[in-house]
Specification:
Keywords: Coiled coil. This protein is mostly helical. The chain contains four helices and no strands. The protein has one domain.
Length: about 200
């Protein structure tokens, strides 16, 4: 069984792949815009689509940044929860050996730690839900990216001077993004189920 740290780490690795694909998408959009400008007026439709692709790549980049921030929060919450849990175990062990006054102080400390652990569990659940929501949004954006890729392919067919393969590259990048965000979703589902 995977620990929460392993699940979050795996999600973070997939997120790095998403970020790489988004950077590549942006560069492809800029290159396509330059290519369209080179061809001139007859590529006006292509140029409009490449401009939209560039705007789109900024949207998906923003969503990926947001996803990265939530995953970082998950790492922090998970580490803090683990630290608090260890403190709780040490306090419980010490309470068994303490005199009556020490047991009462330990009991209050234990209650406080249990409340903090519950709050951290709630925070982790909230973050997992937020990550899932962002993941869904990125999936929808990837579908938009695929449509833009198809539009670029169509424009390139109309104007042979633009046969640069950008539409296929955009679709490949969006497929990668979808695979990676789906994997992140799987990690978040297992994290939620583990309740660790």
């Amino acid at each position: 069984m995977e620990t929460s740290l392993e699940l979050v780490s795996a999600a973070h690795e997939r997120l790095k792949e998403v970020m790489r694909a988004v950077r590549q998408l942006y560069m492809r959009a800029v290159n396509a815009m330059l290519n369209a400008r080179r061809v001139g007026v007859q590529a006006a439709g292509y140029q409009a689509v490449t401009l939209e692709l560039r705007r789109f790549s900024q949207q998906i980049d923003s969503s990926a940044d947001e996803l990265q921030a939530r995953i970082r929060e998950l790492v922090y919450c998970g580490a803090e929860r683990r630290r608090q849990f260890r403190r709780l175990r040490r306090l419980e062990q010490g309470a068994d050996r303490a005199d009556s006054g020490g047991r009462e102080a330990a009991r209050k400390g234990i209650e406080g730690l249990q409340q903090r652990l519950q709050q951290q569990d709630d925070d982790i659940e909230r973050l997992v839900r937020e990550v899932q929501g962002i993941r869904v949004r990125i999936g929808r954006l990837a579908e938009t990216g695929r449509n833009l890729g198809l539009m670029l392919r169509t424009e390139a067919v109309v104007n042979e001077a633009l046969a640069d393969g950008i539409g296929d590259e955009v679709n490949e990048l969006m497929d990668r993004v979808n695979r990676d965000v789906d994997a992140i979703g799987g990690h978040m589902e297992r994290l939620s189920e583990a309740g660790e």
